[in-house]
Amino acid sequence: MEYFLELFFSGLTRGSIYALIALGYTMVYGIIQLINFAHGEIYMIGAFVALIVAGVCTIYGLSGFAILILAAAIAAVYAAAYGYTLEKIAYRPLRGSPRLSPLISAIGMSIFLQNYVLLAQTPDFLPFPRLIPDFAFMDDVAHIIGSPELVILVTTLITMVLLTLLIKKTRVGKAMRATQQDLNMARLVGINVDRVISLTFVIGSVLAAIGGVLVASYIGQVSFYIGFLAGIKAFTAAVLGGIGSIPGAVLGGLIIGWSESFAAGYISSDYEDVLTFVLLVVILIVRPAGILGKVRKQKV
Amino acid sequence: MKRMVVLCVSFVLCLAVTGVSAETIKLGVAGPHSGDLAPYGIPTMRAAQLVVKQINEQGGVLGKQVELLIQDDQCNPNIATNVATRLVSDGAHVVLGHICSGATRAALGTYREAKIPVMSPSATNPPLTQSGEYPNFFRTIASDDMQAKLAVDYALNSLGVKKVAVLHDRGDYGRGFAEFAKQALDEKEIEVVLFEGITPGAMDYSSIIQRVRREGADSLIFGGYHPEASKLVTQLERRRVDAVFISDDGVKDESFLNVAGSAAEGAYMTGPKDLSALPLNKAAVDAFQAAYGAEPGAFFQEGYAAALALLNAVQKAGSTDYDAVVNALRTEYVETPVGLIKFDEKGDAEGVGFSMFKVENGTFVEMQ
Amino acid sequence: MLQDFKQSLVVSLWFVFLTFPLLVVRVNTIENVVVWRWSNILWVAIGSFVLSYFWRFLLLRRNRRQKQAEEGIASYGPLQAALDNILLRNRAMAVLLVLALIFPLIFDTYQTNIMVTALIFVVLGLGLNIGVGLAGLLDLGYVAFFGVGAYSYAILNYYFDLGFWIVLPIGGILGCLFGIVLGFPILRLRGDYLAIVTLGFGMIFKVMMENWETLSLGPSGIANIDRPGFFGVQMSLAQSTTYIYYIMIALVVLTIIVTNRLKNSRVGRAWIALREDEIACVAMGIDMARTKLSAYALGAFWAGIVGVIFAAKTTFINPASFTFMESAIILSIVVLGGMGSILGVILGAFILVLLPEYLRAFSEYRMLVFGAAMVLMMIFRPQGLISNLRQIYQYKGTKDKTAHD
User: Fold this and answer.
1) Is the dihedral of CA A135, A141, A146, A152 positive or negative?
2) CB contact under 8 A, B34 and C367
3) Contact state of B211 with A264 under an 8 Å Cβ cutoff
4) Burial of A101 by CB count in 10 Å (0-12 exposed, 13-18 middle, 19+ buried)?
5) Which of C375, C380, C383 should we substitute to test contact with A (largest number of A Cβ atoms within 10 Å)?
6) Are B309 and B117 in contact (CB under 8 A)?
């Protein structure tokens, strides 16, 4: 039972990070039907900026939890700025062109951003300071769920609640939902669609940056390459849960986190990736629009 | 069509630039110089540049200047074969490289057919020399099975391990090491409770660490590189798993100490013998520091040694003739930063060895 | 004027802000040193200021052209016009063919070798073009079929010592079979769901090859694969490279002919119709499952065949040669060249394979330029290098005949 719990929490931690990144994919997709392949790089840039801020702060004598908050805040601002610029440069000029063009543009952007960070910083792995302290009250259960995991879970939970409130309760959220339902109709009723799209990118990027900072301080290292695999996994999560659906992205992230964790724990870590994708195929065959995705009836 | 014409013309121009100049000894250098594996390739490239600069200042080899042909293979087997063809057609006489075992293996066939001696400072895959398929291949580093055997012997005799979990990163190098370790453990009839691959670059490895604990392993042997190793030791510490971490040469890197920090304490790994006391070694490192103002990186000494050995062999052979050079490599001893070496029939350097290291107080300490 | 200046100023300030932490600050957390690279700010500021002018100019020009196109003013580029001229086209093709045939005689082995790689990607691009360009099935795991071909030759050669020419069709057929087997479950999926599932297949293939040690020799790969034989003649490296080059030329010509014929065939029209509107297509009585599967399987067939040649060319393969990056590059070839257009795909393959090869000089910046080029290309030429023009059939009158009468 204890072993099960260990795996359960490992999967939950991993899954909640996937969920944070997957939200960015799913929100962007929901509005402009674009797979933002460069989203994983935003996550990476968030982690990198946090590393730099934390590094500078440590050198100038700050310490502890304060750095984590500061680093996360600045990382979020920068990730948002990158997300905004990304949309403006690589996707906005492509609105209305064939479906595949923005996808290729996104792949190009992903390659570009990776190499930009590689050249501007380093091709090597950098150590990320351990900003999450080990809480004393967690000591007895540290082998099941450690302090960093707890921080990750709590942060993710808070973020999700805030996001839900933003989308359900605010005016902006309403505009976003309207745009998602029908972009042209939204424009007709006077919603500034361009701004809503930019905002979606900004929100998605902030979420990714939060994920990036959490992961980096959890595993203690950052490199220019970490965005790729995380991005693909998160994207899979978004599709699994039903792309376009926000609760779906969270559910998808958790399912993938758990399936990886239990596969590694009970079967073999050799095949954890295979299992993830087999699961995806099976679910998509049963429910072609993902678990929580709505099948849009096609009108002729 | 205009564009095609322009394209064609620009090709021709490209070709024209790479003219052929005679009367130099051409030393090809191939390895990853860009991308994520560049830190493994650049030190060797710089080593070659330092060696060649020094030799040219002293009058060159056989009275000719040495020219470097540097090519980037990104550790990609497909690019490596292109690079090999490029070096062959540019007329390289001897080649220093490649860095990664996979890329080396892909490129070797090409060099073999062109009759060019190749020496790698870092490709540790055993079959490269032991299969006997590549008589033109030499290396200045010991092979993986030696490392694995050393690690296992040390774990059994000095650490007294009973239950071992073996993990690897599914790569050529890591899996090879893990498999040799498992073989050695099986021979000694030590229980291997876990033998599995992990995905390099995955977010975390906590599930597999939980499994290590559940199987009750008292030691974890890992085949792979330092990024994964530092994640593993960090999680071992965080999850309070009490297992000794034993790994390979790919982990013995400054980055491992920096990234893993306190979690790295008490980890064991194999690595080339500490030779910093050798005068030539010291001179090489000093030359590097004078030129670049930094610590030389991975495989610098091996690369330096390989460049010296190759050029020395050309000198001793009196020509760049393949048979003569290969013969000189096998018979003539040469003083290098990794010791006084010559090469055996298969191409492994005699007198190059590994020892065990332990992380103590943030540095690697050689175990006797 | 002033407006422009202001705008560019804002852009350049924005980019200074954006690149500040990554380009200017470099922390060394081990020695606790911060390196401030202030000079980079200047470069970023100047660079983005100048580039923003270009950016606006190019966007403006693009929009003007689009408008013209909408208003029906034919904006045929000279290239497109030349392509329409059949006489010119035939001549150009003849010249190109001759150039292709004498290429290895003029250039050295290295150039020929690179050219073989480029040609391999031409065939891959043309194969994927059937699925993506014609039938509109987005496939992000195409490299798996390429891998199936390569591994089938490597394995059959390693265990059974089968020769290149025997395995060549086998590789194609195996690729085709895999295409059908994988195609079945995903027929119901559309668009981006298809993309992620195919991506998954690509990754599964790689993991299987890494783990299925007894079959594929695991991550260390299979080495010493035989080069293609020619009636038992012993060949040197240069000769066999040239030989493979000619095999590739033959294959490319064959692929071009076949895909060109397919494009204008009954099934080709069905693909295009399916791409344009699935529902209308099914309503017209086209068997969707069969049509989609045939596109998928045919694409996989070419990948399988060319995979065999790839294995024979490099004489070494390992799972690392078949990553998502390869799939992405093949897809870029198709989109960059111009979806559905054969000539475009060929050009795209040459550019994407040869550009990084000749950009070696800038080795560090190569991938950066590559990524940026992909983005710019999509923005300023979204239809690809050569857009796929629908064939127009025109009644040219019977002037000739009446003259004879």
Assistant:
1) negative
2) yes
3) yes
4) buried
5) C375
6) no
Confidence of residue A43 (pLDDT cuts 50, 70, 90): very high
Q: How far is CA B142 from CA A231, B112, C50, in A?
A: 38, 21, 54
Distance CA C225, CA C236 (A): 15
Domain locations along chain B: 23-141+277-350, 145-248
Distance of alpha carbon A249 from alpha carbon A239, whole angstroms: 8
**What tokens were used for A18?**
């996937």
What confidence tens digit (pLDDT) does each residue in A166-216 have? Answer: 998 999 999 999 998 888 889 999 999 999 999 999 999 999 999 999 988
Q: B207 in contact with C at a CB cutoff of 8 Å?
A: no
d(CA B240, CA B233): 10
Tell me the fold of B145-248: Rossmann fold (3.40.50)
Gap between the Cα atoms of B136 and B94, Å rounded: 10
In a domain, C6, yes or no: yes
The predicted-structure confidence for B130-154, as pLDDT tens digits, reads as follows 888 888 999 888 888 888 888 998 9
Q: What is the mean pLDDT of each run of 10 residues along chain C (405 residues)?
A: 85 89 79 81 89 88 80 60 70 84 82 88 91 83 92 90 88 91 76 78 86 80 80 74 89 90 87 83 85 89 92 86 84 82 86 77 72 84 70 62 49
Question: How is C219-248 classified by DSSP, letter by letter?
Answer: GG-B--PPPPPSTT----HHHHHHHHHHHH
Separation in Å, CA A226 to CA A35, A207, B182, B255: 19, 16, 30, 16
Structural domain includes residue A296: no
CA gap C148, C138 in Å, rounded? 19
Considering A284-288, B291-295, C291-295, the range whose residues carry the highest mean pLDDT is: C291-295
How far is the C-alpha of A268 from the C-alpha of A266, rounded, in Å?
A: 6
Q: What is the pTM of this model?
A: 0.83
Cα separation, C354 vs B344, in Å, equals 41
CB contact under 8 A, B203 and A14: yes
Say what the ipTM of the complex is.
Answer: 0.86
Distance to chain A for B18, nearest Cα, Å: 27
Asked if the structure places residue C87 within a domain, the reply is no
C143 and C23 co-located in one domain: no
The answer to whether the CB atoms of B211 and A14 lie below 8 A apart is no
Instruction: Take residue C86 and report the two structure tokens written for it.
Output: 């059949």
Contacts of C31 (CB under 8 A, 6+ apart): none
Total Cβ atoms within 10 A of residue A100: 20
Note whether C45 and C24 are within 8 A (CB).
no
Token pair of C404 as six digits: 């004879």
Residues of C in contact with A107 (CB under 8 A): 328, 331-332, 374
Fold of B23-141+277-350: Rossmann fold (3.40.50)
d(CA B240, CA A287): 42
Task: CATH number of the domain at C200, please.
Answer: 1.10.3470
| Coil vs helix vs strand at B351 | coil
What type of residue sits at position A63?
Answer: S
Q: Are B54 and B65 within 8 A, CB to CB?
A: no
The encoded tokens of residue C64 equal 């003007």
Residues, chain C = 405
Is residue C387, in this structure, part of any structural domain at all? no
Q: Looking at residue C317, what DSSP letter applies?
A: B
Report the alpha-carbon angle A255-A260-A265, nearest 5. Answer: 125
Other Cβ atoms within 10 Å of C139 Cβ, number: 34
What digits encode the pLDDT tens for the residues C33-65? 788 888 888 888 899 888 888 888 888 888 888
Can you say whether residue B60 is alpha, beta or left, with left for phi > 0 and alpha for psi between -120 and 50 degrees? Answer: left
Closest of A92, A46, A294 to residue A200, by C-alpha:
A92
Q: Choose among C325, C341, B79: nearest CA to A107.
A: C325
